[in-house]
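**User:**
If convenient, please work through this fold.
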Amino acid sequence: MSAAEPKPSKRGFWRANSLTLVCFGLFFVFAFAQSVAGHRQFNADQKAHHSSEVGYGKYLTSGHFWEALTENWESEFLQIGAYILLTVFLVQKGSADSKDPERREEVDQDPREVDKRGDVPWPVRRGGIWLGVYENSLALAFIVLFLLSIFFHAMSGARDYSSEQVEHGQARVSTLEYATTSRFWFESLQNWQSEFLAVGAIVVLSVFLRQRGSPESKPVAAAHSETG
């Protein structure tokens, strides 16, 4: 009698999705903390200008809160989207975040050449325009998220800026008008530059430094010249 085959281990939902759950959990924690700190700062500014303070609920619908929130979303989506696209064409020898410049990587495989009898996503089996979109869908998703966040940044920023304009007896501005102001671009560019500094840092540091157990690092014993 043959030995029974071992049953495949079943990981629970929390274990299988722990990275996503923790990241989104931290997002909500920090977004809430930002709203509390922003509310206090906003009321401090109101008090300094002899204006009436606002309640927490009203602050959550204000341009001040949403401008600060969405301008950071904008820079993060730009960072990830640009990084996805840049790593398609550019390499850094020795980096854990780069393709190996000396050989063809598995991610470069043409999906039209794979065996479609396996458990492959339906756009791969369907082919045509569906496959064309799907093979670029990750970058496209971040481009859309970036464009949406930059729109919401401009829209909420226009509300906040207009409130300040009214307090000083000046006219309100539209979303498009606000998007042409130096304030809008200062808010955006101060975040954009920091995002690419962080990306550049991890690309270079992962050549020489290690973090055991992290997929963002090479194995601890790997040579500095080993890429990917």
About this structure: The chain has two domains: 18-61, 62-104+120-228. The mean pLDDT is 89. The CA atoms of residues 119 and 125 lie 10 Å apart.
